[in-house]
Design a protein that fits this description.
mainly alpha, about 60% helix, globular
Length: about 130
């Protein structure tokens, strides 16, 4: 079970255990959709999913496609996405280094879910 699956299945702990949670608050904290939104609310994750949806890319290709991301944020976010199981990194062990990134099956399934949201935003947000 990867950390995304764990984080989506484990409700957040009540920060002040002396105050009991209502049934609605307990439901909201345990809601997998809420937890997923918290994970993908990092705008860089959404940009990278969008960029890799078109196929395998190297680091510099991602930097060019996502024009507003720094190298530091790209590297940091890719590492996080690899740990979550959304992205697969392939290192070809060559000189000069050749490394590329692609969405895993989990990342592709998330991308498929996000496409209708993108269509809706394009049609309704001016």
């Amino acid at each position: 079970m990867n950390s995304l699956t764990k984080s989506l299945r484990q409700p957040e702990s009540n920060m002040d255990s002396t105050i009991p949670l209502s049934a609605a608050e307990q439901f909201i904290q345990a809601c997998p959709s809420r937890q997923l939104i918290e994970v993908i609310s990092n705008k860089w994750i959404l940009y990278i999913i969008w960029a890799l949806d078109s196929g395998t890319m190297r680091n510099n290709e991602l930097l060019r496609k996502i024009e507003i991301i720094s190298q530091k944020m790209l590297t940091q976010t890719l590492k996080e996405m690899i740990q979550q199981g959304w992205v697969i990194r392939t290192d070809y062990q060559t000189v000069p280094p050749h490394v590329d990134y692609r969405l895993s099956s989990l990342g592709m399934s998330l991308s498929e879910v996000l496409r209708p949201l993108d269509v809706w935003a394009a049609a309704n947000i001016k």
